[in-house]
Every structure is written in structure tokens, then in C-alpha cells.
Specification:
Layout: E1 3-6, E2 11-15, E3 19-25, E4 31-38, E5 90-93, E6 104-111, E7 128-135, E8 142-150, E9 155-163, E10 170-182, E11 188-195, E12 198-206, E13 210-215, E14 228-232, E15 243-249, E16 254-260, E17 266-272, E18 279-281, E19 286-288, E20 291-297, H1 300-315, E21 329-331, H2 333-336, H3 342-350, E22 359-362, H4 392-400, E23 404-409, E24 413-414, H5 419-423, E25 443-444, H6 450-466, E26 471-474, H7 496-514, E27 519-522, H8 532-537, E28 540-542, H9 549-559, E29 568-573, H10 586-594, E30 597-601, H11 609-631, E31 633-638, E32 651-657, E33 663-670, E34 681-682, E35 692-695, E36 700-703, H12 704-710, E37 712-713, E38 723-730
Parallel strand pairs: 21-22, 21-30, 22-23, 23-26, 26-27, 27-28, 28-29, 29-30
Antiparallel strand pairs: 1-2, 2-3, 3-4, 5-10, 6-7, 7-8, 8-9, 9-19, 9-20, 10-17, 10-18, 11-12, 11-14, 13-16, 14-15, 15-20, 16-17, 24-25, 31-32, 32-33, 33-38, 34-37, 35-36, 35-38
Helix pairs in contact: 3-4, 6-7, 9-10, 10-11
Length: 732
Amino acid sequence: MPITYQSETRTFQLDTAHTSYIFRVYKGNYLFHEYWGRRLRPVDLTRLFRTCPTGFSPNWAGSTAPDESLDLIPAEYPFYGTGDYRSPAVEAAFSDGSRLLDLKYVSHAILPAKPPLPGLPSLDGGDATLEVTLADPTTGLTVVVSYTVYEDSDVITRHARVVNTTDDIVRVSRALSASVDLPSMDYDLIGLYGAHLRERQVDRRPLRHGMQALESRRGASSHQMNPFLALAAPNADETAGEVYGATLIYSGNFLAAAEADGFCTTRMQIGLNPFDFSWKLEPGESFVTPEAVLTYSAEGLGRMSRNFHRVFREHLGRVKGTDRPNPIVINNWEATYFDFDEEKLKALIQSCRGLGIDTFVLDDGWFGHRDNDTTSLGDWFVHRGKLPDGLKPVIDCCRENGMKFGLWVEPEMVSEDSELYRAHPDWAIRQEGRPFCLGRNQLVLDLSRPEVVAYLKETIGRLLEENDISYIKWDMNRHITDQYSAGLPADRQPELLHRYMLGLYDLLGDLTSRFPQVVFEGCSGGGGRFDAGMLYYMPQTWTSDNSDAIERLKIQWGTSLVYPPRCMTAHVSAVPNHQIGRVTPFGTRGLVAMSASFGYELNPLSLSEEERAAIAEQTASYRSVSDLVAQGDFYRLASPFEGRAEAGADDAAWMFVSPDRGRAFMVYVLRLATPGAPARRIKLQGLDPQAVYHIDELDADFGGDELMFAGLATPYAMRDFEALSFTLTRKG
């Protein structure tokens, strides 16, 4: 059984294939976290724990023992007001002004199936679920803490449900999804920071005393910080060392934090950001937190990532069970920007014949009277000045040339210059009578209002019903400011941003279930909302508006710490690159993009015959390895964050290995060449050490042990930005 309860010691043990998570009901009926790490046989760990009496850690109510303080024990779901001064997981205010809680164990249930999280995306399946009910004896407020075990992935998910069992209104001001107390602070803190065009850069630093928080306050998970946190042993690398990882299946404001206290223990937490948040609960109502995904690895960051990748591939919404290759897309944006008409689009489509591209995506500018970015968002009807006969002639041209048709939309936004805004100015997030911010000349629609969500269901639904559209690129090109809803009463205004996310999930759930044949791609100025919440509905996300292959090395590397490479969209774009002006070889751009969901962002009419031949070769090559990208195990080999040009190692490398270890695909990129540098030896991973592999590009055989333990030498005479690939097949 993956979840067991020992009544004699009142101990819960959650086991995955390689890990154990153990906590118990302690004195005073408090939940006490005991262990999270390598798998253990059933064991009583009470002998490990000794608390040191301290004059400024108060006893809990009813105790006079000097070491019985909530300030000293490792809590399983900490609360505010009764002696634990560290960061709580839950806070609530009652009608008399009290904010005090004293949550004690009441009961538990072990369930064979996982109940759904109402209104929220979450993993499905699971091997067993534990629900532990806690209650405050004074007020009766109840919190149900839930755990689901995914044995094969070494993953445990957590969420909480706050239930108002009182006779009056309760206001929840903090409700995190997971909190874990670890017995040491000897860790490095790893997060993914960034900015527009520079998303998910890896930041690793030693954990310090005090609170270290990674968060978003932007109404979206954001370019600036990703909803992910890892605590890694200082010596942990890609293949060895302890790592604790956590991410959140949520797309809005989040908090991921680590607090190291004066006793050198660490509290690791993740969940909704309590900043500018509260939730009004009437008697009998509940509030459910988003789902946190937790994993422990004793084999470094690589195993942590593969645990996340596996559980997402097998249990996350539309990512799950997607064995087919993603479509190979060409997008017209960098070819035309807003300047196109029907004939220009047809010429672009016709020029794709013979290139192996299967989907043409029409980007911004096809709707309303949109000729620039100041107008028409919200008016999701065809721009008759550009497309007098609608989308059908363009779609027909795609079909005639062996391609499918995709479309860009930005449904969450509205322009002041639009029919929608003129009819419903109160549907925008802003306060009447106050000056308000614009971002990219646009406002955000208030998806906390059911009538706005209903309008978008009908409008976008009609667009998909009336046109043969197989691909939707769903963009969000600004974050939320002026947080005020004309549809909410004064005492519910702090609920706006979470209600917005619930409205968005309702909208996406409706459209993706009604149109299962459509591939939805997420986007937010590129990678500004790359999270598991969006991936639940949209199995791939435009990873960054920066399509430069060398910049993408870091962006895609960082993203892969949490998310499967098949969920990243990466395109070959023109050079000089439109974002930073860099010129890189066509082959390098192809190999970097082929390590994700592959496509093109360029003008096919401007291609030379040599470039057209290169595209046809790239698309054929991608199809031959796309199953590895989609379902293979991913290994990071050489980090672009650690390159040292003076040592001849300013490079990056990674590989995909089939589940049976019979095939592999490796990419090596040299960023900057160094004169006189020795050949770089890259040690491969994930192969069968007893097998012999044929490498097509070298037309030679190598032992799996040789490739993994001795390495593969790169050529000496490589130039700046040059890339190589190696395709491996097990012999016999």
C-alpha cells in the first residue's frame, strides 16, 4: 500500500517507488513532520527528534513542559497565533476580529481514488489519497489537508480545503498548498527568474537565515519568477545529491518560499500568494487551494526533473497520453507583422509546399479593424479590409497545399478602441473614475465576472465552430494592474485575482472539451505564463518571444528543470534575429528548436533554395526523433549557465532517451570557440551500459558504458554557435 497508518504510533507513511514521506499525530494532537527522503521500511522515528528548551518558545495551551512548543516542532500544516512564529500555511479572521487558530487532528481517511479539485486543474489518477481533517477547538474552523501518491513518478501532491464550519463569516487571508519542515538548512535554493525575452534563468544560491521568497504579484505566474522552488544539497548536481522540488498547478499569483530559522531548520512552502488576497467564506462554504506537486530526488537535479516530466506526461490534462508528434507550425508574424492581406497569406502558404511544414498559423491582425496594436482586441470577427471573404479562402489554400490552419487570439484582453469596450467598459479590470494603466495599449477583461466568461465561450466557440481551425495560439500580452472589479462587492475585492483564474480555467475547460481536435498553445508575451496550470488545458507553450538559438539555450534549459521539453514551443527564426540581431547557423537554429515542439517563424518567400532544402531536411529529421522528444527521458549534459570559455567549455548539451533505452538523440552546441582548446568529452546518460550503440552521424559503434563513463569527444574545429546532433540506436 502506498499509504499506511500505524495506529500504535499514530504515524502516516506515504511511499513512492524510491521515497518515503512520514508524519504523525504528536502530543496535543498536532501534526508533526518526521521525514521526507529515500524510501524506508515502516519505522518509528521518534528517537531522532529532540527539542531544546528555550525561554522564548512558548508552550502550547495545557502544557508546561519546556520543550513542548509549536515554535520547535516540525509542523505538517502550520497555523498562526499559538506559538509558532515561523511562516504559517493558513491564516483566517473571525467576526470578533480574532485571527487565532489552533488546528488539531480530528480524523483521517485513505481513499483509493483522488477527488477532483473543484474549478482547478490538477493531476488525475494517483495510487492513493490521504485526507487528514484538522479543526480549531474554539471556533470549529476545519482544514482538510490532502495528499496523493504517484508511486512510479516519485511524486506526492498536496492541497488543502478550508471549511467554514462556524456560524458566522470567516475571512481566509492565507491558504498555502504545501508546507514541509526539513531538519537542516544546509541547502542551496534554486529558482527560475527572468524577464520578457529572458525567461526561466536558473538562480542558485546558498540558503540563508530568514525568509527567502520567490513570488509573482502580477496576476499571472509571470516572466519574472516561475512557480517552482528546489532545495538542493550544496554538492548536488545533475546526477547526484539530494534535491527537494516543488511546483504549483496554478497560473496566477503564487508564493514559493524557504524560511531558515534560528535553530537551522528550514520551512519550505508553496501556494497562492497571500499578498492582496482574502476570501470570504459564508457558513458551510469551502475554499480549495491549488495543487502542489512535490518530489524528492537522491540522484540530483536530473532525476527531480524527470520525476516532474513523467508525472505531467502521464497525469496532467491534455499533456497526458499525447503520443502523436506535435504539429510542425509556421507562423506569419515575423514574415508580415500587421501588414498582410489574403493574397499575401496565400503566397506564404503556397511557398511552404515541399518543406514538410503541416500547419500555418495566422497571427495578430486578422480581426476587427486591427492594423496596429492600439485597437480591436475583444472584437473577434474578421477584418474585412484585409480578408474580404473571411478566413475560408485562407483555410482552403492551406488544405490545397497539404496544411492545416491555425489562428492567434488574445481573448483575455480588450482595446479601448473596440466595439466590445464601447458596449461594456465595466468589463475591464479598472475602477471607474480613476486613471488606469495600459500595457501594450490594452486592458484586461474581468474574467471574475460570469457574463464575461460566457461572452468569450460564445464568441471564441463560434469562431471555432464556423471555421476549420486545428490550432489556436492563445496569448496574454500584459499583466494585471488596477485590480478592481465592477462586478464584486467591496468586501470581496481581494478575491478578484483568484476569481479571475477560476474564470479563465472555466473558459479553457469549456473550449478544450468542446473542441478536442484543436491543439491549443499557451502564450503570454512568450513565456510569461509557463506553468502546469496552463499546460493542463494547452499541452504546449510558446517558450519565449526571444527565438535566438543561443539565448534559447538558457531559456529552454531552465524551463526543463520542471516542464517536459515537448511542452515548450521553439521555432527556427530568420537572421539577423529580430529580437537581438544575432546571426547563427541555420543548422544550429534547427537543432535547438527540434529539442522541443518544433516550428518556424520566418518568411518562406525570402528563403534561398539552400535554405528550403535545409528546412525539408530538418522537418524530416524532426519527425524521425519527435517520439523521443515527446516521450523520452530528458538528460541535461552540459549547462550553458556554467560554461567557461578559457577552458574550452562554453557550450551546452542535452539528450533524449527512449523508455526502453534502445534509441537516443543528443544535441551539442558550442557557444564560443576557444583557440587551442582540447576536445570536449561529454558523458552521456540514460543508456544501457551493457549495450552497443550505433551513432548514425559518426557511422561507428560505441559501448553504452564507454559513452556514459568515458564520454564522447566533440570535434576540434568547431566555430562559434555551431551545433551537432548524434542519433543513437542500440544494436542487436
